[in-house]
Amino acid sequence: MNGHSEKSDIIALDRESNQNGLIAAYPNPSTGIITTEINGANGRNGTISVTNMNGTLVEQKVVYTTGIEKHQFDLTNFEAGMYFVRYQDDTSDQTIKLIKQ
Fold this sequence. Notes:
Layout: E1 22-26, E2 33-39, E3 44-52, E4 57-65, E5 68-74, E6 81-88, E7 93-100
Antiparallel strand pairs: 1-2, 2-5, 3-4, 3-6, 6-7
């Protein structure tokens, strides 16, 4: 606010996990397009699904995982509110919350 700026060091973040099937979605909250990151086991077929608060499926993708992968979903035309992003394969089943503004 006073016109002074300062640069900081770059910090690397390691998002890997020992837990297969770990899912992340961002930006959260979102106004439309979200990116999901899946840390699935190599060589597994899985499903990423997005449902609304009523449990209605609004988007779904079948994916073949080869490690950490990114997939995009466009929620621009859906109502504001809470959604659930779920990743399932034959060994994992995880759900996270997502807010659509």
